[in-house]
Design goal:
Elements lengths: L1 H19 L6 H25 L1
Keywords: Membrane, Transmembrane, Transmembrane helix
Length: about 50
Amino acid sequence: MKPIAIPFAAQASAATFINYYHEIWDLPSIISFGSLVISAGYLIVNFLGRQF
């Protein structure tokens, strides 16, 4: 269940960030951007860990 939850979390945070992008320094925008960076970083590290 964990491998499928991470892409959904990344997609949800990206959609939230796009919704609040016009006011970049608002709290929801910062939280959604941070969540997007964290989930994307996790996916990249997990993908590279499986390749090597």
